[in-house]
Amino acid sequence: xxxxxxxxxxxxxxxxxxxxxxxxxxLASQFTGISRTRIYELLRDGxxxxxxxxxxxxxxxxxxxxxLGEAPSTKREVSG
Length: 80
Hints:
The chain is an alpha+beta fold. It contains four helices and three strands, in the order αβααββα. The chain has a domain at about 15-70. It has helices spanning about 5-10, 25-30, 35-45, 60-70, and strands at about 20-25, 50-55, 55-60.
């Protein structure tokens, strides 16, 4: 996210992205550097998780962090 956008978000008292449960595709795009179109493709393919709330598609932040390798996986480890 560019410095001006980051500053305006901070001034409004919004939570940092890592502290949110979900974000819009636009914000997910800015956060990851992945195009908004690709974010929607990743949602469609199941690579990241999303929810529709009152007609708005939201991307779950945990799934974005997993995609970027910054969050623990929710998949169970198989002991053998």
